[in-house]
Amino acid sequence: MGSPIALYLAAAGVGTLGLIDFDIVDYSNLQRQVLHGTKDVGRKKLNSARDRIKDVNPNVHVVLHDAMFRSDNASEIVAEYDIVIDGTDNFPTRYLSNDVCVFLNKPNIYGSIFRFEGQCTVFAPSLGGPCYRCLYPEPPPPGMVPSCAEGGVLGVLPGVIGVMQAIEAVKLIVGIGEPLVGRLIHFDALKMKFREFRVRRDPSCPICGEHPSITELIDYEQFCGIPQAQAAEEAEPPVPEISVEELKAKKDRGDKFVLLDVREPYEYDIARIPGSQLIPLG
Question: Looking at the chain, which runs of residues are DSSP E strands?
Fold first, then answer.
């Protein structure tokens, strides 16, 4: 979502854009992260994004934060900006973005996507609206909600939600219209339907409620159960693996085994190993 957000805000003339990322461009990013092209594969995403933004509007001041967004740097980074736009895909960063924005009285323009659906709202207790914790007081159990990499996402969906987030940013900057404060928009791409939900501020919210119990940034990885989940994975015995060379040797020796292909039928039609049996994972 950061790609359409950055492109449209640059084109709109936003004077300063701060980008936070630490990853490099991969071919798998290109179907949805339109800031980057094939020539950028292997480059830092921040550098690729800066060049593309400057190509759209050379007058934009682009500030690069080459780091993970963490409790020890979040306050210092966010303090320099008027608005935070959350385009992340993991729960620890979402809770961190929310909490630091509450503490610093910054609007947090939220967007999320999964498969064929997305949602967008503006969390801003300073403007009389709710925060992320009012809607989601606790994160889901580790592993219950797959990431975009695991569950997949329609490549154009980040464009729809990201553009909505960019619109909300422009409205807040210029002071026009009715921002999505206290309203959440849900988008179903398969049905091409938008639905609006009212989201109220929770008086018992642990961070923006009447008697907050959270008064400083915490360890969000631990809060979301990430270390426990990783420990559980490490405790499980590893799945046995063989290389393609070992598979070839088994076939040449005439070993008896079942070769199961779990790809989709269209992939199987393009190329397959003779003798394999197709049972799509889906």
Answer: 16-21, 61-66, 84-86, 108-114, 117-123, 183-188, 193-198, 260-261, 277-278
